[in-house]
Recover the amino acids of this structure.
């Protein structure tokens, strides 16, 4: 799916240049300008575009929003008003998920309105979904380029999540319970030995440590790392080494057998 970013009557060349730069940042090449009220190729726009200059120079200009959207099936328009809209407002993740569901061969569009007054209702009605960026209710207006940055960040996050799901990428499997419990047992013995735990409170404190590790769901390599740390600390404690000891030659205990 080819995503086009559409700016309706942009008035600020700095904003246009910044949006071109954002398009380059997030891998978009299709910038469309509807009746711009500034020179999109002027010095200010070029200065802000930086490495997005190619996007700026190839941006297409249209007389109306309808013309800019003529080849698009799925359109998401942004609105900051929060009420009185012709369609319900969706949060970015919901609106963009609908946009991403477009078939691969179909062009789609993200539409942003004027800096001073956004999009009119007749323009919003040309979209299939309306996207609203949640902001503080006391001052909800966002700069045009800032709004584009927020939405494109959400778009890329959605793309990454979808790619990860498609490739089966997922967090590592948690370590076997036996390995985790053996590590906790070693840790409890060490903490009792050095006086951090006391027999009458050990059970309650170890329950908190077990809960912490349970939330983290460490994998086998991580549990092995923790167990190795506990073994090394126990060896150092029994030898009576001070915390800042830096002997020129150190000997280390033999490695633990595999769990």
């Amino acid at each position: 799916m080819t995503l086009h970013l559409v700016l309706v009557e942009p008035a600020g060349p700095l904003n246009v240049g910044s949006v071109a730069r954002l398009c380059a940042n997030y891998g978009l090449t299709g910038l469309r300008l509807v009746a711009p009220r500034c020179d999109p190729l002027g010095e200010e726009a070029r200065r802000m575009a930086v490495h997005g200059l190619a996007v700026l120079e190839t941006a297409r200009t249209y007389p109306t929003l309808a013309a800019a959207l003529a080849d698009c099936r799925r359109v998401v328009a942004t609105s900051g008003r929060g009420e009185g809209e012709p369609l319900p407002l969706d949060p970015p993740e919901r609106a963009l998920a609908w946009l991403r569901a477009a078939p691969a061969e179909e062009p789609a569009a993200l539409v942003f309105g004027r800096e001073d007054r956004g999009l009119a209702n007749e323009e919003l009605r040309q979209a299939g979904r309306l996207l609203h960026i949640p902001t503080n209710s006391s001052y909800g207006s966002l700069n045009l380029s800032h709004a584009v940055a927020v939405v494109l960040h959400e778009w890329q996050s959605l793309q990454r999540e979808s790619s990860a799901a498609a490739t089966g990428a997922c967090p590592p499997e948690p370590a076997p319970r036996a390995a985790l419990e053996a590590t906790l047992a070693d840790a409890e013995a060490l903490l009792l030995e050095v006086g951090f735990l006391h027999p009458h409170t050990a059970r309650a404190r170890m329950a908190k440590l077990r809960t912490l590790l349970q939330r983290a769901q460490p994998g086998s390599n991580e549990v092995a790392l923790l167990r190795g740390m506990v073994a090394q600390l126990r060896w150092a404690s029994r030898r009576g080494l001070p915390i800042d000891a830096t002997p020129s030659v150190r000997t280390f205990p033999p490695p633990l057998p595999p769990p």
